[in-house]
Batch of 2 targets.
Target 1
Amino acid sequence: MSDCMSSRRDLLKAAGAATLLAPGVFLLAAPTPSKARPEDTATDSSVRWGLLVDTNRCDQECTACVTACKEEMGLTGHGRPATDAQYIRKVEIAEPKTGFTRSLPVMCQHCSSPPCVDVCPTGASFKRADGIVLVDRHVCIGCRYCMMACPYKARSFVHETTTDQLPNNPRGKGCVEACTLCAHRVDAGIVPACVEACHSKGRGAMLFGDLLNPEHAITQVVAQHPTSQIRADLKTDPGVRYHGI
Amino acid sequence: MRILAALLIALSLGGLALPVLAGPPDVPKGAGEKCLADAATMRRNHMSMLMHRRDATMHQGVRASTNGLKACLDCHAVNDGAGQPVGIDSDKHFCRVCHDYAAVKVDCFECHASKPAAKKAAEAPAEAEPMAPPEAAQESGAATPPKPEGPK
Amino acid sequence: MAHMPDLVFKELNAKGTAFRVLFVALAGLFLIGLGAAFYMEHSGHWVTGMTNQVVWGMPHVFAVFLIVAASGALNVASISSVFGKSVYKPAAPLSALLALALLAGGLAVLVLDLGRPDRLIVAMTHFNFKSIFAANIILYTGFFAIVLVYLWFMMDRKLKYKSSGPGTFAFIWRLVLTTGTGSIFGFLVAREAYSSAVMAPLFIAMSLAFGTAIFILVLLAVCVIDKRPLGDVLTERLRVLLAVFVATTAYLALVQHVTAAYWAGRVDVVSFILLNGGVYTFLFWGVQMGLGTIFPLALTLVPRLRSHATLAFASVLVVLGGLAQVYVIIIGGQAWPLTLFPGYEVESSFFDGVVQSYSPSFPEILLGIGGFALALLIVAFGMAILRFLPTSLADADIDPHAKKRLLETEEAGEPA
């Protein structure tokens, strides 16, 4: 187990920066390394985890990220789409006048000024020092004000008693939940499940890394290519950026 | 008044007698060599240890593997007849054996898994070489914005 | 100022049949509401009409209505203590009791709908002061405390001549409280139907209208049930007040939509509510504006229609219109999808870009009605054990000028 873990971590460290394959396309290559952090230390604000999605590369037919997320987080669902939780979803966008279309994953945008954290009465919604926005479900009272406030429709409410949760993602009836940017994996030096799946099963359209670390591919790509944020007008400063829209 | 007193005595006797008759619980042995502290300390303080650990993990991402709920379950899981660990729905579950006896209800397992993580046999690491996009070669037209040199 | 006539305040006759039937009925409705809440909590919210799209449903409609009405119900007391209108003074303690009761009813509904109502203590011990919700928790508990002190001043023989101080404080507090309730919605920047500064004054106007309507209904009901004389001096004034508040609410509701419609990005959501929103359009024009505004305005303003019966009817309509208004604000606002990608048509498995559907479930409605019942139960219980209302609200008893006029006519009549 530990062998497997450390070999994976080495592998991720080895995987490097984005490379230019052809003009206009950069390969969002390989899960980037997490900053190695000893197990018993706290996160700090010297890192800001972020995601970059290359919508030019994201395939409309592909839902590898969504499937991987459900598997990683133990989101089994009850066949009730209106109340079943979704941490990440594929959104198809089309501009009616021009016919321009793109397909892209939307999840918690891990804002640096998260509206959900502002409105939460108990402080259950919070932002970790490294920029990951989480719900402390020991303190969440299930008022759903964060769901009203989130501009990205990123959060779900657990509408029923849950059983057989995975150890990595405790979740239960009556609390609000969302994408954790796979904090449990990131803390262990592994990229989020969606990013891993995007590279192993999809077209490698997602890039994960530390937006403050100039050595990380994501930082370099963001510095040199146009990227956008969803609802940038709200100035929530998301940690998730998109290229190609 | 007398009836009330009799009722109270009966109730308190009943309340005391039942667990006493059943005797102290037979606490299952853990798997490891020794626990984080001696049994008396663990019995008295496990909840505050877990609580402290809980907030550190949740808010600061401290995930030392030795003293969290997962670690408790790893050592103390009780197996059923078929050799599979039992969940909180079984009265043989390590937590329940004591908590049922002490009549202390905890809601940890409404959210947390009550069994150790299933060992994944084939946990192969992700593909080493990044996948090249199929359209990489031809996607240089006007559809994509012109881009400067790729990052190194 | 004319000397106030001596009034005898008395408890309700709790042994009367009408009172007992009403009390049992209210208790029953409250218990049914509790049962509904237990059912929803036990099964999880999937048994309700609420979803990940429409996260606040019928319980919130009732809760917001009751909480908003609570601060408005205090209005009668404010007019007597703050604005010195002595005619309202005999009814002031009841108005404060009703304010407390309505707030308790509304908060009960809100709390019982939480995903984890068992963690209420968490909400009371963990505060995020940037949250308008947390601010409201402080405003609500503060309201209870302040109105209780105010009530004590009004009902204590020695203190009652000093009640204008606490009364003024309570009045200011209630304005802030309703501003806070309106801001729950007004501060939601991402939701096109909500984010607006008009929300705060709109909610204040709504509170005045709904609170006055409920106060009128309770006053009329108490006087009928307990056979207490009720003259026209007080009800005439309440009638005019109700009309003014209802008109103000309708005006601000229109301002809310007109200002939003001026903004290109919000034309769609405004036309959704006002023109093509199906049930929301019907509720806005048919119930909120028609049944809840125009009709009661006619009932209260046409001189020929003046009577206690029409006033009661108008008040019922204002309550119905108010519930419709809150429904349109809360549910209609959520039915309109969030705009993540302006200028694009969007589609996903998570209901992006489509108008969300919501059908209220029975348990939600029963919980809301239970909140109403709890509020009225508190009023009934309070009035049965303490002296909140004088035995007579006849004109001659509460209005010094009416008494004087009456004496003059009697004197003038004697020689003849």
Note: Residues 121-152 of chain B have pLDDT under 50 and may be disordered.
Target 2
Amino acid sequence: MLRGAWFSSPMGALVRKEFLETWRDKRALWMAVSFSLIFPVMLFAFTTYMVKQSTEEPTRMAFLGGDRVPLLAERLSDDQFQVEVLSEGKPRELLESGYDLVLELSEDFVEDYVSLRSAKVYLYLDSADIASGRAQGRLQERLGKLQQLVVSQRLSARGVAQQLLSPWNLQVRDVSTPSSRGAIILAAVPGLLILTLFVASLATSVDTSAGERERLSLETLLLQPLPGWQLVAAKVLAVASMGWMGALLALAALVSLMPMMPLAELGIQQAATVGSALGMGLLLLPLALLVAVVQILLALRSNSFKDAQTQLSILQIAPAMLLVVLDVSGVQLESGVWQLVPLVAQQQWLKALLVGDPISLPLVLAGSLVSLLMAVFAVALGARALRRERLLNTG
Amino acid sequence: MIEVNAVSKDFGGRKILRDLSFTVPDGRITALLGANGAGKTTCLRIIGGLLRADSGDVRLGGIDVGRDPMAARRQLGVVGDREGLYERLTVAEYLSLFATIQGLSGGVRDKALQAVREELELDDLWHRRTRGFSQGERMKVSLARAMVHQPQHLILDEPTRGLDVLAARLLRKTLLQLRDRGTTILFSSHVMSEVSELSDQVLVMSAGRIVGGGTPAELLAQTGCGNLEDTFVTLAYGTAGGQKEGAPAC
């Protein structure tokens, strides 16, 4: 009843008009939905690829002439490094048939080895193949260890202490964990969600401002007995609804895809639940309003529809870059003041919710209020902009 | 009544309107004639409150447009030089929007919508979105939007431009009916036959000023010309068409 009465008011009718126009614009809707779904799907593909990369895929090596050195073939071989001894074959064909490497002993290898001469071993690989390159590293590591063993045995047999040949013993310890690699992926999510919001509302904001101006239908609206702030506010609500829908869609897709992502293999405990996703959606609402009004203001300032598209395309790169720079530069954002800065605040809150960290409710309320107040201020600026005579193409 | 009092307007240092003054009486159709660039559209936009006059004032039914544009716009319907339709709304949604914005609601709004639907023969278009409408259909919807709240004052900027015979006829019929109901109508046009047929009063503008005014018969008598076209050319350009300077006008 109350809802119906509101829609019967001039402001209600205006809001309804803007929503109908926005949600019936198939081109804008298609753009918003596509971008919103692309980023979670890309994230899904990237995590899957990362896990595949980090998982030890066994190397297959053909060992031509390995039957003459069975101990060497046995020492090289383990679960991750499968050695198949062949008496004959052509290295190129073997590589093409699926082997990562082909190791071939020279004809007089055994004779040279026994005579303590440097016996020749030939390694064939396809450097264009990533797996082949990785396999080469693995083989060299294994051969290096065996070579060191043989050298030390030979020196011991001649009464030389092997320590003489090893002034130091370097041991490398990689402290990176799957979890820290996964954290990099998750750190990108808030920025991408915010970028989704910008992209999803772009087409609508240009259409409702620069588009209306170019079609001269804005003039018809300006001739109505409505204050300028109502005209801008109705447009902002409609544009924000599209941006917010994009961000919510991306969130929903992310939460739906997360159970299928190999997060456990990356050491990430899935913290984003439906509840936290809802929280993230709510946190993005004030930002959606602010982004919408800024986009409309910029589009109204531009000279044409095309000009507005160009300006806004640049605008949506700027915040994404800002967030990346803040992340990369390692600026400490622990101070509460940062949570009053739009964009930075939302990024911090989303990051925290994503990994299950707590966020301060008073700071969230204060930060959201700042975003809303800035949106209200921008609406007032927009109302002033509507009074500019240049808007009417007076030439 | 529309009163324009000593209105001047510059754009980038170029004088568009110079001390422009005229009156459009109630229940009359007044045509505003002028060559391209004479300042007609600027004048109509100042009357609608879209542009502000650098000096002078405009009153609609006694309301100063510059001081109280909202009140003035409630008494005003405007059909601009482009239709200003929303292509993703149906005709019903479009007209309902503007009726509501003008303060109509409930049964009053429904009656107003039904009235313009019948008067402008919009039955076939009523539930269609306006994308792909012909020029005549667009003009009908635009006129319906301007008159749905039954304003006392109606302004039309070259309303018959691009219309076919039937649409132009319907427009003329509607304007005459509105005049008979007491509506104050001001329209700009280049079509002399239409001006002759519709106008009770003609105002001729040139270089931002009114250079002639009166009933069509009065203007003919004033210039000594045999038709309105020659009268207009004489008043607006000083000579009748291609005639040399100093030659008799008509």
Note: The interface with chain B takes residues 8-10, 12-14, 16-17, 20-21, 24-25, 215-217, 219-227, 389, 392, 394-395 of chain A (CB under 8 Å).
